[in-house]
Amino acid sequence: MIDINNPAGRYYEILRKAKSKGDDLKVRQVWAQVLDEDESDDSTITRKVIEVYQLGEEVKRLIGMNEGVNKELYLSSFPQIERAIFPLQLNTTWKAQKQQLNDGVMTRLQFCSELLSSIYNEEQLKDEDLAQVTKLIDELFSAVLSSSLDGGIRITLLEEIERLRTALSMYKINGAKGLKQSLQSTIGMVVTNQGELSSVAASEPDVIERLGKLIDKVDSFTAKVLKVHKALTKPVQFLIGLVTDNDDSSPESIEPEGGAEP
Which among 52, 128, 188, 202 is least surrounded, fewest beta carbons within 10 Å? Predict the structure, then answer.
């Protein structure tokens, strides 16, 4: 069984689904179906296919880090895989590009997944976990949008919310690593804008509360599945000076399985 919880396994599973599609489908239809997108949304389909290509680059990088393996053999099929992805001509039929994904290509990609499974350890977020984060993102977006915040901090918050939303939409491609990177960006935004966010807490406390819950939930989930420490050991309110070490009002969190307590 292919381990889809490492980059090569996710890459294999995406390409396996694409390979299973009918020859006469348009390229647009194939990728829309594989990546769960609307067939009419060319922009999002293109962006996600580019992410799939970047996932392949990540696999090549990770394989290249392994000493004592025949890297040329493991990676010999990647030029064919890349020809199956690009050029991305959405209106052409899938048959020609699909032919690049022959059994030999897919088998070698299975070997890549097996190799990485011994060094790459990640669990799968459950659908209900993803639904929880989606709900928190939507609620925070609505709260910021309906708030009376000044333009600068309002735009900054909306940009970070959309960054997390995009990372969530790319989860099946990039796994929890993409979410973790977006979380780190959001935490950086909080640190950089401490003064402005303290003012937001005074005028729109609901926004800060929802922001804190979202950051804590993403932090807890990604720490759990990646088996690492949480990025934050204190609530967002602590970062912007609204609570102290003695305050025990930190949001509910999930402790990482198999890791040290945060």
Answer: 128
